[in-house]
## 1
Amino acid sequence: MGRSSNELRCFTHHNNKIMNGGKNKRPFLSISSSLFTTLLFVVLFTVAALLLLHSTPTVTASLPHKPWTGDLRTAEFAWNRLSLDEDFNLPPQDMLKIAVFSRKWPSGSTPGGMERHARTLHSALASRGHEVHVFTSSTSKPVTISPVPNSPIVHSHVDESEPGKWQYKKAWEQYKLENGNGRPFDVVHSESVALPYFMARLLPNLAVSWHGIALESLSSAIYQDLVRPVDQPMSAAFNASLQTLIPKVLNEIRFFKNYQHHVATSDSSGEMLRDVYQIPSKRVHVIINGVDNNEFNYDKKQGQNFRTEIGIPNNNVTLVFGVAGRLVKDKGHPLLFEAFSNLRTKHPNIYLIVAGSGPWEERYKELGDQVIILGSLKPSELRVFYNAIDIFVNPTLRPQGLDLTLMEAMMSGKPVMASRFPSIKGTIVVNEEFGFMFAPNAEELEATMEVVVAEGPERMARRGKACREYAASMFTASKMALAYERLFLCIKNDTFCVHHPHSI
């Protein structure tokens, strides 16, 4: 979650005093009795079980659009569903000066999902004419934030002293200097706790975006441990997490309410913030991340050419699975490795294209010619990858936030397979036509892949067309940017909080 160490020490000190009658005799977290460990296990698994049972009502994509009007702050659906697209080619109703606190900004050729999201969103807002100031960390390579044509530049404020380290105190000083230099900022946007609580609570015009919360991390820790072979001992890291995750959830519930506006990036996390974290509904807003709708498109010929280039046959019987991202345990690669290892022996006409790098890269090479490993790809190269596959697989063990790759695949006209987590179930695979969901274990994944093989590539293409239509209505960068713009306008002036009849 990116909490600052000072903030966590403050929270732990507060908890210690409570647990010891206010005398702070000894740190609560140092208790190591078997009773405490047992109770902590019970609490941990109970909370995680509640998270998994917590389900978001499924949105049926084929339902007719209904008119909606009212105060946007009362809307509990994703703002991406608002029909704001007609405003995209019009100038904003008011020009905003926006301060953005982001731990990282894209600097290399293969940026992470959070960095790509931040650049896509704030570049789109700058292209709308808003003045955007990005307060971020420096890297070993110079951070360049290019001007957007016909709009104010996206201003970069970085500290060059310690590359790779987020200097929030120095960023805060830069912010205060700029805020007092002429026109003050209309809104402050903190990307996933980039701005610590003790600073953020002082800002009435703050919106903080959550790309994962500690309650979701509980399930992540559990499922990553469940892939451990039964004859291996529990990892020291998982043991240590037992004594940190529960207090972290409690601290988030205690202090999150002090942030003025919360942006949830999935329907399920919005419900958690309202129902579990006890944040007033009017201060929780669901805005789903978007991807560049000009960069990701369906191109059949491009996909066929790439298949030929990498040695995959172009015919009506070959079926190609694809996976992209970091090749690490928490992304579910132990599951996919085992499932495809079994599947390939029964089906010689299936292939797996792996786009990414990491510890599991060498393991995938063991599976022979039916696995094509591309290594890390630039965002511009991912488009070719998506067009070359028949279905995208995301076996993630992290039920927090939403992986951009799912949206990119759907924008490219591909159906998806994904772990059955509330965020994905309630926001991405909201219609059976869009793909498949499975329990996050190798056996379920293999069984689901068998279903895909039985349906074949032509059926995948029809599913992909439905995915493309839905993604274009929900997951575009313009949809995301217009939703954030409307929220920021609402924060500046209550007049903009009232939405007049449109379709959703």
## 2
Amino acid sequence: MRTLNVKLSEFKSEIGYIGFAEYSNLKVTTPLDKNDILKFLHYYYSSNKVTAYQNKTDHLPFPFRTENLTSADIHKIYDNVLFKIKTIFRSFEKGWENFESDLKRFESNLESINIKLRELNLCYPCFMLTIDDFNPKSNKINGLFNEMGFIYDYFFFIIFMNPSGNLTTLEISYD
């Protein structure tokens, strides 16, 4: 993941990175809305924090410039986020060599994610950002992508809350 001081769980994946980050030090007592998500993203994933984190790891930087995001950039999903992700993934088929075999592996990864979501007892609605919503030169995309040629084939970032009010993020990405 892209931040420190959280409990991380990473899955092995043949076609990308899958990771959960559990924020047990952060408790929410009211239902989340998009403005809460923007505050969370800015606090934990602001450009200066992710650049510092990237210097300590070999991960690509968080692709979004949180200070430029608005609530319109965040998808609020009321159920079955994995279906939404699979639908977006299917839209990449054109020009993707070996798409059908990669789709089967991606679907297998989604089954593992679904099991983990149930284990963590995560609640809907959840909130999602996907890099597919933006032009790579958008001011909402981290400038390092343009300067250094970093590219994600796909990047899904989902924020859930559990019944205790703790937030958990899910990142599904491939670079």
## 3
Amino acid sequence: MDPSDRSGAPASASRAYQPGQSQSQERPLYSQTTPSPQPFSPQGHMTPSPQPVMSPSTPTSPDPVHDLPEELLQAGWRKFWSKRERRPYYFNKNTNESLWDTPQLGSPPFPRNDPLGINVSTPVREQHDVRLSRNSVETKPAALGQKRKSMDDGSMGPPTKKLHGQQQQQHQQPQTQGPGFVSPYWNFGIQTNAMIFERKPIDVLPPHPDIELERATLTNRLRLHYQDLCQNRENIDAPKESFNRWLLERKVIDKGNDPLLPSNCVQEVSPSMYREIINDIPIKVFRPKYPNDARKQLYRYAEAANKMIESRRVSSESRKVVKWNVQDTFSWLRSQQGSTVEEYQERLAHLKVQCGPHLTEAAKSSVEGICAKIYNQSCAYAKRIRDKQWDILREHNITGVPHYRDPAVRKVPCYAVQLAVPSPRLPQIDFSTENQYTYFKYKNEACRVNTSHFQKLEHLYRMHCRDDPRFENFLSRVWCLLRRYQTLFGIRANEGSGLQGALPIPVFEALNKHFEVTFECFASPLNCFFKQYCSAYNDVDSYFGSRGPILDFHPVSGSFEANPPFGEELMEAMVDHFEDLLHKTDDPLSFIVFIPEWRDPPTPALVRMEESRYKRKQAVIPAFEHEYRSGSQHTCPNDELYYRAVHGTLVFFLQNKAGYEKWEPTQEKVDALLQAFRPIGNKPPDRYKMMNSVTAGVVRNNNSQRGDKASEGSSSSSSASSGTSSSSSSSNNSSDTPR
């Protein structure tokens, strides 16, 4: 179907979100009242039916869309049929250019040869034209029943609003794309070198505010239930961030339909959750600062161990061993009054070694019951959410998943995930801007984001979304996105923010400059630096450019950055996936991986990469000599954006032979990368001092409250894309720092 033939909402319809709307105007309630969009084809374009077919007038090639020379296909060109003009036209899915004539590589677009009307020039912004985030061309809506004129009558038709993400002529700089396209914290002017085999839309249900609100309510209820079980059964608090790490670990093996809650795992008992609860039994230990605190902790551990062994069904031998060691510890405490912190800690470690196995055996069945109960409750919640989601879809006459034919086996530049099920009409969202924040409210549930990040989301949406050219569903999808990540982070203050921690901007610039990295393997629309990335969720993130979860993404060439969430199971699955990809392709493929330097004991992922036959080089950045961006960067003040890492960071270069020849990690390049890790505090990079006046004005406004103080780093945490975390115990989970 010709995208120019899409029917828009009538002039009398409720007002929808306009990307170029002035901030000075009073904000109304924005309504999304567009007809249900049609599904996508495997190439990401709209089709008139669930089965993507061409017009009867289309040439009878077996695959008309790809009936082009190989060099044009590699450049992103596809061939389609215009029902209005009854002739073929050409569309470039990488640059959003459209042509009537056969495209010629290297030639600039000409407006008269523009079927979709998207190659028109952007007007110069007037001084009084204060837009939310971009220039626009205002057009008068067509009257009801009025058809657009044919291109053959000498009229080019009304100009449409310029897509912000479309590629300009080669001589233009990314900064000319308008405010927000290039920021001190992202750069969408960098094109990808990641190649994949073309893929069809995935069978994932589209997001809906009512469903996201239900998912948030049930997930928070599950968190509280987990806390109650730990408190009632083992008399301990749920380990900090344990629930978040459980979600990460379960999703490695989960085959269920819910994007957040696990519902189809091979084993009910999670090794991650079991390990963390056992580690806090009989009490949670910490690193004391003063001798008196160390003495109290040793006494509390001995007393709790004695009480636990007396109240559980254990063998007489286990009871005898634990009670003897407890009495020996009490005797030592009575005789030693002036011991140091190290002496108390050494005695505690000895007591844990002697009593730990017996206490674990005593608590095993109870802890396994906690893990199984949480998983089974999650399965029930996931089914409840799924049923409600299908009820909403049926109300909009969406009764099943459309069928798509398998695309031709062709290597193409990577593109965002496309959903097979069309999105229904989404409800309206209250939307307002106050100071540096933008607020979204739905049914008394509010989400907020920095206005600069809201502009970022608008750019990503414009570049990647294919089913909403008029932005009718934009606000609803932004609310769903923010609500999903807010649910993932948790309900406590500062909980889960480490899941979104990111590498410093100079590091991304060095990766792109020296190793041509253009893709992030673990990111989100909120913290990505490049416009191409993988993320945890392929439903809410897909409209903003996500290529889906990294374990479901199979590139055949390209240069990638990977800084995974610091969960042992996920990091190990990542290594398996990368080695499998490197083994299957002869094209240049490179992964630069950042993980924490945990060696007491070493994590399986660390050992695997040190012994990998694809490891070309390895480097380490010492603790406290580098920093990360906060996981709450989309909501935190600018002077809290960076914090120091309290652990070392290991850098691994995993490359096949062709990737090593193309992006060899020479010592000079590696030194430049390590130098980029030098702490810069909360100042924007120097390269943005020369930004054009429009973009520079936005940056100055966003940075007006940015201080010079470098954050010393709170308790470290794990990262969903690029994060940081720490460990100070043998199990790597005993400290307050999540992993």
